[in-house]
Write a structure and sequence with these properties.
The chain is built from 9 helices and 8 strands. By secondary structure, it is an alpha/beta fold. The relative contact order is 0.15.
Length: 267
């Protein structure tokens, strides 16, 4: 499969079909040595919840991009029998590389939001030779009380508001599985000690950690841990919550484009 196969595709991985959207960020649509920009969505997200941000960033940096739904989300296959363990984000990093192999992608720049940011950090530690740069937004490297409080608030919103109906526009009949996969896992006693700080020193590429100062799911301790562990740069945006690319789109576009361009030129 070449980078010229732009558009929406379903890629078989075992008994699962993964929905992939190719985005042309560069007029060079053939396979080149340039890395591909890969977007990793959050715990309730999918390809479509990114809106037009991936297209905008891909054009700004001149890289072709891939945006995909993890299993259970969006238009990808539904979850199998769900029994998530505290290691599920690491498992998704492994799936990411399996998908990249299926797409014949060698090197990547990873842009991950929330869970996607944690996956991006783990992936950069697992196969550093394939990851040119990482941008995270609201990534977690350990569990905080504010994280659990935010998830409990979301749990209440699922029960008392139209949130399930709004998410069903993106996930269809899978919406309850999406909610359970996030809420039940993170609120389980086994997950309270989850921590991926041990991966950070193995990351050799440049990292930009973005976080809203008013993030309802994490404190500045998350950013400090990423900066200290991975020698990362940071961008903290005042007055912004857990979704900077939507709440402060132009600020994030400017910072991410400058950072990615610099990292790619450094190769």
């Amino acid at each position: 499969m070449s980078h010229s196969d732009l558009g929406d595709q379903f890629v078989p991985l075992g008994d699962t079909a993964i929905h992939v959207r190719w985005i042309a960020g560069s007029p060079r649509t053939a396979v080149t040595a340039a890395p591909v920009l890969v977007f990793l969505h959050d715990s309730l997200g999918c390809v479509d919840t990114w809106r037009d941000f991936p297209e905008r960033l891909a054009r700004r940096v001149g890289l072709n991009a891939v945006n995909y739904d993890r299993q259970g989300y969006g238009r990808s296959s539904a979850f199998g029998p769900l029994s998530r363990t505290p290691g599920y984000l690491g498992e998704q990093a492994t799936v990411l590389f399996t998908l990249l192999d299926a797409l014949a992608i060698e090197t990547v720049v990873l842009f991950g939001h929330s869970d996607g940011g944690s996956i991006a950090l783990i992936a950069a530690a697992m196969q550093p030779q394939r990851v040119t740069a990482v941008v995270t937004e609201g990534a977690h490297v350990f569990v905080e009380d504010v994280t659990l409080a935010g998830i409990r608030a979301a749990q209440e919103a699922f029960a008392t508001t139209d949130l399930p109906e709004r998410l069903a526009r993106y996930h269809g009949e899978k919406v309850q599985g999406v909610a359970a996969a996030w809420i039940d896992t993170w609120l389980s006693p086994a997950f309270r000690t989850w921590n991926i700080e041990r991966y950070l020193p193995a990351i050799s590429c440049p990292v930009l950690a973005i976080q809203g100062q008013d993030d309802e799911f994490g404190t500045m301790a998350q950013v400090r841990a990423i900066v200290d562990g991975a020698a990362a740069e940071s961008l903290v945006i005042p007055g912004v919550g857990h979704t900077p690319h939507r709440e402060a789109r132009d600020t994030v576009l400017d910072a991410a484009a400058e950072f990615i361009t610099r990292a790619v030129r450094r190769q």
